[in-house]
Amino acid sequence: MKANILILLGVILAHVATAQKAPAVSKTAFSDSALHQPLYALDGQQKTAGEILAAHKGKTVLLYIWAAWCPDCLKGFPELYALQKANPDLHTVYFSLDRQEEQWKNGIEKFNLQGEHYWFKTEWKNNFTNAIDLNWIPRYLIIGPDGRIKHYYAVKADDPALQEAIDALKRHKGD
């Protein structure tokens, strides 16, 4: 019995130790498999991640991966709102990992999430989440006007690297 408890404790500790670990490589582009991942809009229309992101070409995008059941997502909303307020030209696109459509839609309304909303309608692992090495939510990515990933990994909206990436894109736009 003690051995089983120790094994379980070891597994839990190993998961916690690696859960929020930043990926070893910060990618600057999405793979073809990621771009072909289907998602669903609020009206039920299916689009690929590539179609969604291509619609924002020429704009700076905050891609926010979340779920209404995620405690860290809910705790982080004040910082998300502050980031959006500080950057009114930032386009926010939400990709949800909610397990049920109703849960996803209720979360958007309950938390007054402003931006474009899409739902994976899959389990946690899919071509998109695998391609971006998703190991924790919330997850924030900054995508530049050229469609390339400018900041690959943040799990908090108040991570200074997010604002730095946005500011760098603003400076570059002025060149």
Portion in beta strands = 15-25%
> Under the CATH scheme, which architecture would be assigned?
3-Layer(aba) Sandwich
The first-level CATH class name = Alpha Beta
Distance between the termini: 66 Å
The H/E string reads: HHEEHEHHEHEHEEH
CATH superfamily: Glutaredoxin
> And the CATH topology?
Glutaredoxin
Number of domains: 1
**Which descriptor suits the 3D outline?**
globular
Count helical runs: 8
Summarize model confidence as the mean pLDDT: 89
For the largest sheet, list the strands in their spatial order. Answer: 2-1-5-4-3-6-7
Low-confidence stretches: 8-19
Offer a quick outline of the entry.
By secondary structure, this protein is of the alpha/beta class. It has helices at residues 2-19, 32-35, 49-54, 71-75, 77-86, 101-110, 127-131, 160-174, and strands at 38-41, 46-48, 61-66, 91-96, 116-119, 139-143, 149-154. The chain has a seven-stranded mixed sheet.
Please provide a written account of the structure.
The structure is a single chain. With 175 residues, the chain is an alpha/beta fold. The chain has one domain: 3-Layer(aba) Sandwich (Glutaredoxin), CATH 3.40.30. It is 42% helix and 19% strand. It has eight helices and seven strands. The chain has a seven-stranded mixed beta sheet. Strand 4, helix 6 and strand 5 form a beta-alpha-beta unit. It is globular and about 55 Å long. It starts with a helix and ends with a helix.
